[in-house]
Amino acid sequence: MFTGIVQGIATIDDVIQAPGLNTLIVSFPEGRVQGVETGASVAINGTCLTVTRQEGSQLHFDAMQETLKTTTLGELSAGDGVNFERAARVGDEIGGHLLSGHIHTTAEIVRIVRSENNVTLWFEVPGDWAPYIFPKGYIAINGASLTIGDVEENRFNVHLIPETLRATTFGTVTEGDKVNIEVDSQTQAIVDTLTRMGYGRPQQAPE
């Protein structure tokens, strides 16, 4: 499990491609892989991956075909920055919300609004996932636990403070970039249950 509190930015050193498999070789900031062993779980841009090898501050991960198809990991190349979070341990503070590291879909950044002290990012998700997106609800974007702002059909935004921009890759994103999305598990369970009972998505109150 993960908390959605990104622990820093790591760098892709190399991507070794093989049939149905990409091996990601990732360099982490000094001291961030202390105690990591082969078999440990680390979230890379929100995707739970297993450490297959360690060389100093460099970790190796294998991403299978299904992972490459569902996430943005197949688009990574040497030099790219990625958000990372090591798996939570019993007793750790949950500063965001509980995440599984299993990506549901991807979204495209369709608009970036910059103001003096924050940045607002607008995302577009596939229509099938729009029912799980609610104002003030939780969502994980590239592994970061964020609060949803406004929702317009299958588009939504989040507001990012300077610290979030500094500690994650959101500070360097551009329009057209794709991100990994993990919807809140409790929201998904409630929506699915109501759908099975024949209830549609609640209508938003008129402004």
Automatic annotation (TrEMBL):
This enzyme's EC code(s): 2.5.1.9
This protein's pathway: Cofactor biosynthesis; riboflavin biosynthesis; riboflavin from 2-hydroxy-3-oxobutyl phosphate and 5-amino-6-(D-ribitylamino)uracil: step 2/2
One Pfam family named in its UniProt record: Lum_binding
UniProt protein name: Riboflavin synthase
Keyword terms: Repeat, Riboflavin biosynthesis, Transferase
Start-end of each Lumazine-binding repeat: 1-97, 98-194
Domain Lumazine-binding per the UniProt entry, residue ranges: 1-97, 98-194
PROSITE patterns: LUMAZINE_BIND
Catalytic reactions of this protein: 2 6,7-dimethyl-8-(1-D-ribityl)lumazine + H(+) = 5-amino-6-(D-ribitylamino)uracil + riboflavin
Gene Ontology terms describing biological process: riboflavin biosynthetic process
GO molecular function: riboflavin synthase activity
Record flagged with keyword Coiled coil: no
Function text: Catalyzes the dismutation of two molecules of 6,7-dimethyl-8-ribityllumazine, resulting in the formation of riboflavin and 5-amino-6-(D-ribitylamino)uracil.
Source superkingdom: Bacteria
Transmembrane stretches, start-end: none
